[in-house]
Amino acid sequence: MRTDCLSNKVFGASWAVLNDQAQAVRMAGLVRQALIAEAELTPKPGLVDRRGAGAHIDLSLAIMRRSALAIEPYLCQMAFISSRSHPSQPLRELLAVIGRDAERAMLKATSGSNSHKGAIWILGLLISASAMQDDKARASAITATAKMIASFEDRATPRLVSHGDVVAKRYGVTGARGEALRGFPVVDVGLPMLHSRRASGATENVARLDTLLSIMSRLDDTCLLYRGGEEALVTAKAGAAAVESAGGSGTAIGSQKLFRLDRRLLELGASPGGSGDLLAATLFLDAVERRQNEVQADRSGGSEDIHGTH
Which domain holds residue 24? Predict the structure, then answer.
């Protein structure tokens, strides 16, 4: 476990501070592990996975891993400053400063590729909200607190126009900010799917893939809209729903439909990056709810789990 995300000056301050530091390190580790588990999960439609870069030309699995490691210390800082705190304007603006530092670290680690900008926003809010809770907090309490944090504007910096902003204006969707301001409702779909698939005896790989598909079928993913327009979003939603209707990715028909969707998204050059970020968020919240010290590593590297290539 990494312990270099906070200054050693905190040591000796008090047992409470030491405990807050330990919790911040643990939660930042969970975020890193969730991001890497999401990236490694295979086969995902249009996304980077163990088979290749998906619909991307500037990303790879190695880059995604490096990016997750690079932003971990900044997420740790977010968790630490949020301990024993509550949603407020000053906290929101301090989180934004750390978030911009995290983006710069990401770009340096990836030689300029945007691997996790959306994840920094989503998981930055969630790790901050998690740090404010006790160790028995439910995901619903965490997402409600994240919603409160997101409701404050970042007044310190003029708001820059992002790809999500461009798409939101053109297509009338709300994007990652709107998802946060609604309390991440898609996670309310993802977590129950993850739990139900596990309870049914599905492998963890299938449970996670079906969770991703449940998110894709419902999310107005601005990554899809930006890269492939409405056709990409409609294709992704319908294709994911078709896999669900076929019994999920663990069935023969569902697997066929999943690879059909993957091929079509590659043809469109579109990747459901927002859905991937929310899958990582779901894995993080699941680990926090279960009071785990680790997110189970992805194990979809066997030939029985990978039936196609990008």
Answer: 16-154+170-289
